[in-house]
From TrEMBL:
Residues that coordinate or bind ATP: 24-31
SUPFAM superfamilies documented for this protein: Actin-like ATPase domain
Organism, scientific name: Brevibacillus fulvus
Gene that this polypeptide is encoded by: anmK
Lineage top rank: taxon: Bacteria
One MF term in the entry's GO annotations: kinase activity
Keywords from the UniProt entry: ATP-binding, Carbohydrate metabolism, Kinase, Nucleotide-binding, Transferase
Function (record text): Catalyzes the specific phosphorylation of 1,6-anhydro-N-acetylmuramic acid (anhMurNAc) with the simultaneous cleavage of the 1,6-anhydro ring, generating MurNAc-6-P. Is required for the utilization of anhMurNAc either imported from the medium or derived from its own cell wall murein, and thus plays a role in cell wall recycling.
Name by which UniProt lists this protein: Anhydro-N-acetylmuramic acid kinase
Pfam families according to UniProt: AnmK
Key word Ubl conjugation present: no
Pathway given in the UniProt record: Cell wall biogenesis; peptidoglycan recycling; Amino-sugar metabolism; 1,6-anhydro-N-acetylmuramate degradation
Length: 406
């Protein structure tokens, strides 16, 4: 079987076929994208095309197990270790199903580019006992063993993308903006790329932008709070608010909303990132308890959580984007792109001249964009090129991301 033995062999080609794997903070499942990337003789990306997409939902048992690992109160080292390897079996299965659907053999694929499942993200400096006294540590843990995926599929795997940026003094996130620039840069239009997954994050791309002109950050909760409220409120019958129908049937509590708009995170200047350790189950429990005190119905709480996401996104634009960059279009992706109530709330908060679109209107399915992005990041790793953006992550310099399991 022909197989790449190193980056030098990969760089000799101008057409590359990769698989991007993404499992986000929503803990809903695995997005797998088969992506072709064409480069010119100068090794510059000329075309990125999605060939096939496959979604593998997590089982309830797996979702619950991973959820426990995202909280210091419930995480156990034995379960963390087992899940690290067990999740890799899910990733490998997703790859196999994707290839079956596409009618593509494993030996035609250059590499799998795998984000892994984030269970803890500490972007700021944390004090730790070092060899010469206290030292500062930045840390983020994505689980899913690369070697298992390689062994099950026979395809080289690139993963652990965030670690190198953290080592270089960055937040380790967001990483997708590098790919956003390749996919969505426009000579005439200033664009905002807003992903609404479990956490919401935005990439700011000025018209005719170069790498050093873009910036990005996590705006706050995306679907995470809404999903948890829906799961609890329906006794697990529903996992998310499809189309925003539950929110549309409720009333937004201005009083509850104002309490949670006061969260200190929203005032922090970018670069910044956040995750389930801030907006996970403990946050939702407090939100729900406050809602009950105020006599809110289940529908009212979902409506208010939806408004929280829309409002914090819009406020982030007002504080950190609009004073710096003229914007013409907002392009939404992720699960939130399907939530019509959320999109309606978001449009109502924005200046009238900004056109709100979804990535699907650009030929990139809303749920596939981040998986495609990690295929691009893996490609750059194999080309030996940096793909973090220091203006986005706060890293001291551009660095080549990820580890490779050949």
């Amino acid at each position: 079987m022909a197989r790449i033995q190193g980056a030098a062999s990969y760089k000799e080609k101008q057409h590359h076929l990769l698989i991007g794997l993404m499992s986000g903070t929503s803990l809903d499942g695995v997005d797998a994208a088969l992506v072709s990337i064409e480069t010119d003789k100068h090794e510059t990306i000329q075309k990125v095309r999605l060939e096939q997409f496959y979604y593998l939902p997590y089982s309830d048992a797996l979702r619950q197990q991973v959820m426990l690992l995202c909280s210091p109160e419930t995480a156990r080292v034995d379960q963390l270790t087992v899940t690290h390897y067990g999740l890799a079996e899910w990733y490998a299965y997703a790859v196999q199903q994707l290839l079956r659907q596409a009618g593509v053999a494993a030996d035609q694929v250059d590499a799998i580019c795998m984000h892994g499942q984030t269970v803890w993200h500490v972007a700021g400096n944390t004090q730790f006992p070092g060899p010469e006294g206290e030292t500062s540590v930045r840390a983020s843990l994505q689980i899913g063993e690369l070697s298992t995926v390689m062994e099950r599929t026979g395809i080289p795997v690139v993963g652990n993308f965030r670690a190198r940026d953290l080592a270089a003094g960055g937040e380790g996130a967001p990483l997708v903006p590098y790919a956003d620039l390749i996919l969505f840069r426009d000579e005439q239009k200033g664009r905002l790329l807003q992903n609404i997954g479990g956490i919401a994050n935005v990439t700011v791309i000025p018209a005719a932008a170069a790498d050093e002109h873009i910036f990005a950050f996590d705006t706050g909760p995306g679907n995470m709070v809404i999903d948890e409220l829906v799961k609890e409120g329906t006794a697990g019958r529903l996992r998310f608010d499809e189309g925003g129908k539950i929110a549309a049937s409720g009333r937004v509590s201005t009083e509850l909303l104002e309490i949670y708009l006061a969260d200190a995170y929203y005032q922090l200047q970018p670069p910044k990132s956040t995750g389930r350790e801030v907006y996970g189950k403990a946050f939702v429990d407090r939100f729900r308890a406050e809602g009950h005190k105020k006599g809110l119905s289940f529908e009212d709480m979902v409506a208010t959580a939806t408004a929280l996401t829309a409002k914090t996104i819009a406020q982030a634009f007002e504080r950190f984007v609009f004073p710096l960059v003229p914007i013409d279009q907002l392009i939404v992706s992720g699960g939130g792109a399907h939530n019509e109530t959320m999109l309606g709330m978001l449009k109502a908060e924005l200046p009238k001249h900004i056109v709100v679109m979804t990535s699907a209107q650009f030929g990139i399915p809303d749920d596939a964009k981040e998986a495609i992005a990690f295929a691009i990041l893996g490609h750059e790793t194999l080309m030996g090129r940096p793909s973090n953006v220091p203006s986005v992550t706060g890293a001291s310099r551009p660095v080549i991301l990820g580890n490779i399991c050949w």
